[in-house]
UniProtKB/TrEMBL annotation:
Keywords: Membrane, Transmembrane, Transmembrane helix. InterPro entries: Glycopeptide_resist_protein, Vancomycin_resist_VanW, YoaR-like_PG-bd. Residues 29-59 have a biased composition (Basic and acidic residues). Residues 215-318 form the YoaR-like putative peptidoglycan binding domain. It comes from Romboutsia weinsteinii. The keyword Membrane applies. This is YoaR-like putative peptidoglycan binding domain-containing protein. The keyword Signal does not apply. The lineage of its organism: Bacteria, Bacillati, Bacillota, Clostridia, Peptostreptococcales. Residues 1-63 are annotated as: Disordered. It comes from the Bacteria. The chain crosses the membrane at residues 145-167.
């Protein structure tokens, strides 16, 4: 038995010598193989020791069994304690050992390819497990990061929700009106503040600089409504229609938002103010003129003018609160003037060379009526009417008021003579009516007097009632028309001048045929041979 044991040991030693030789060649697993061989020898020795103690006492036998059992148990426990990776590596080592033992028995060493394959399998398995462990660690780190980010996001959303909720019924930061901060105000506070601001503004004065004049206007005299409710709603609703994160950014940034009143001005007061400023400061253009003296014609060049830009001034007045930095400030506004160019070119007037028609009436010179006739006639003198342009007698001589050169004189009202401003102006319109008919021009608007007059035949008069009745006609010729008036010694004469070819050789005659309290008016046209080539019933006039 000792001999067999020695032989076994010798064989083991021979094997160890062969393994050492391969270890020197770089086999990384040979030491583990040697270790496994030692464990097998140790197991055999435990068994041999147990066999050698058969002739001893029962106690020693039991102890030998226990010792052998403990040895076997230790080996089993060691093997079980290895993890799955070590078992796989051990299996590879066993396979390698088997190959090597077979080679040793046959005295054939492992070739290089076998070494390489075994080494690659081992390295790949080790790399796989390292990679697997790294993946597990990476997954755990990602989960930790996700939890941190999720927590931070939850906190952020909570902050956003709380912040925006606090401004649900309040004005966002940065809002101001006339320099007053409105931030964080609720609806009631905002309404009270806006009313307070408007009442303070009303006490201020507006200074308007227009040309060389200055106008001091009380703001309370022009403002009709501050539209407080609309402004309040606009301020309260700002940004509230946005999503929760956009609202949060508005609150966080607190950008300044300046508001102003949407003022409604009193139209009558503002229009009167514009008229007053325009009349006092405008320097209107002068159109080229045709100066007629007897039969002589002279052209006069027009001049540029300046006129108030009323729309711009009204806009500035309405937006005056945008200029108020503090509530104690008064407002200064500069009126803007624009060029007022002539509406016609002097070259267009060079075609005027002939008197087309003339008509005269008589009036009592002196007194109020004579003064009114002369004033109205003067306003018509040198007036030019371009082709297609319509003439309005009321616009040309009006307004018939005391401040426009007129005075009191008898006027016809509902068939009765009464004293009124402008008595006599209808004689000028009636004289002009006859002049236009002789020029072959028909009226576009005309009314007879309620009572027949003495200065023209019935059916050939044209009355004026400011705002109600007007006398109008249109230039239907291809050339300009020029009015030339003259008053002298109680005689009123009105002429119409144009181009010699305007009437195309036709002479016109107007006639009123009276019958009872009515009269029918006709216009006739004759060629150069006296042949009637035109006839037109104009209208029927009815008198009281």
């Amino acid at each position: 038995m000792d001999k067999e044991k020695d032989g076994a040991t010798g064989t083991n030693n021979d094997s160890n010598e062969e393994i050492d030789v391969y270890s020197s060649g770089g086999d990384v697993n040979n030491k583990d193989i040697s270790k496994d061989r030692d464990e097998e020898v140790q197991a055999k020795e435990c068994n041999d020791t147990s066999d050698a103690s058969d002739d001893k006492s029962v106690d020693e036998s039991i102890l030998g069994d226990i010792s052998s059992s403990q040895c076997n148990k230790k080996i089993v426990d060691d093997n079980k304690s290895k993890n799955a990776n070590e078992e796989q590596i051990a299996q590879i080592d066993v396979d390698k050992e088997t190959i090597e033992m077979n080679n040793i028995k046959e005295n054939e060493p492992l070739d290089e390819q076998q070494h390489t394959e075994l080494e690659d399998d081992t390295v790949h398995l080790v790399d796989y497990n390292v990679e697997d462990n790294n993946k597990i660690k990476s997954t755990k780190n990602i989960k930790k990061i996700a939890l941190i980010i999720g927590g931070m996001l939850a906190i952020f959303v909570l902050v956003v929700a709380v912040t925006t909720s606090a401004y649900k019924n309040k004005v966002y930061p940065g809002a101001s009106l006339c320099g007053v901060d409105l931030s964080k105000m609720d609806k009631e506070e905002l309404n009270k503040e806006i009313k307070s601001i408007s009442s303070k503004i009303e006490k201020n004065t507006m200074y308007i600089k227009a040309s060389s004049k200055k106008y001091d206007i009380k703001i309370s005299d022009l403002v009709e409504d501050y539209n407080i409710n609309g402004l309040e709603q606009k301020i309260m609703n700002y940004g509230k229609e946005k999503n929760i994160f956009e609202k949060f950014m508005i609150i966080l940034n607190s950008n300044e938002v300046k508001y102003g009143f949407d003022i409604s001005v009193d139209k009558e007061k503002i229009n009167k103010l514009m008229d007053d400023i325009s009349k006092e400061t405008n320097k209107l253009h002068e159109n080229p003129k045709v100066i007629i003296n007897g039969d002589d014609i002279k052209l006069e060049v027009g001049k540029d003018g300046k006129k108030l830009n009323e729309n711009d001034l009204i806009k500035k007045i309405k937006g005056f609160t945008n200029k108020v930095e503090t509530l104690d400030d008064n407002v200064s506004i500069a009126a803007v003037y624009e060029d007022d160019k002539p509406t016609m070119n002097i070259n267009d007037l060079k075609s005027v060379d002939t008197k087309m028609s003339t008509y005269s009436t008589t009036y009592g010179s002196g007194g109020g009526r004579g003064s009114n006739v002369e004033n109205a006639a003067k306003k018509l003198d040198d007036m030019i009417l371009m082709p297609g342009e319509e003439f309005s007698y009321e616009k040309s001589v009006g307004p018939v008021e005391l401040n426009n050169g007129y005075t009191y004189a008898p006027v016809i009202v509902n068939g009765e003579l009464q004293n009124g401003v402008g008595g006599g102006v209808c004689q000028v319109s009636s004289t002009l009516y006859n002049t236009t008919l002789i020029a072959g021009i028909l009226p576009t608007e005309r009314r007879n007097h309620s009572k027949a007059v003495s200065y023209v035949p019935r059916g050939l008069d044209a009355t004026l009632a400011s705002g109600l009745i007007d006398y109008k006609f249109k230039n239907t010729y291809d050339y300009p028309l020029v009015l030339n008036t003259n008053t002298s010694g109680g005689k009123l004469t009105i002429e119409i001048w144009s181009n010699k070819d305007a009437k195309k050789g036709i002479s016109y005659e107007a006639k009123g045929y009276a019958s009872g309290n009515s009269a029918n008016t006709y216009l006739y046209g004759y060629d150069k041979d006296g042949k009637k080539v035109f006839e037109k019933h104009i209208d029927t006039s009815v008198y009281r």
